[in-house]
Amino acid sequence: MKAVKVMGVTILASSISIGAAIFGQRWIEESPMLERLVEHGPDQLRTLPDFHLMDVQDREVASNAWAGKILVLNFWATWCTSCIDEMPMFIRAQEALREDGVQFVGIAADKAQDVREFLVDHPVSYPLLIADAEVIHMSKRLGNRLEVLPFTVIFDRRGRRVYSQIGGMTAEELRVELKPLLPESTKL
């Protein structure tokens, strides 16, 4: 008789545990509040932050300079091989999509002089800005939780963050992310 009671209690306890686990998982998956906390964290930026950085000619540029455009921010450095590898693709995309309101902007985690020297052998057709400590922290809040380079963030025309990627991007990944933001007539 004891064995039957032990078996019954074990089955009951197992059923309660499994039921609680299933209910808890569904509750977490369906809770928008918890989803926001888990997926984005309390300090995550969902829109283009207001920032002012110096370009390679030592002119201050504000983030609102590209208001109303699809903005592709790429955090990079002259010493980052993966960063340099994806730059020709960004240059081609900038040239092809400029008329459709797409703006690429590179934010270099370098000294301005290093970037100027880099540009001698590697011309770039989009603006390059020089990062400061605040903007490095901003990249983390935009999704660069590992604080690595390259890191790319895409904002729609209303300044909403729609995509971020740690590591190098491929042309196909860029195409997939930009396509829904562009007019249907745009060929990618």
TrEMBL record:
Q: Which domain of life is it from?
A: Bacteria
Classification via InterPro entries: AhpC/TSA, Thioredoxin-like_sf, Thioredoxin_domain, Thioredoxin_ResA/DsbE_sf
The residue stretches assigned to a coiled coil in this entry are none
**Thioredoxin domain sequence ranges:** 42-183
A Pfam family: AhpC-TSA
Name the Gene Ontology molecular function terms of this record.
Answer: antioxidant activity; oxidoreductase activity
PANTHER family per record: THIOL:DISULFIDE INTERCHANGE PROTEIN DSBE, THIOREDOXIN-LIKE PROTEIN HI_1115
Name of the protein this chain belongs to: TlpA family protein disulfide reductase
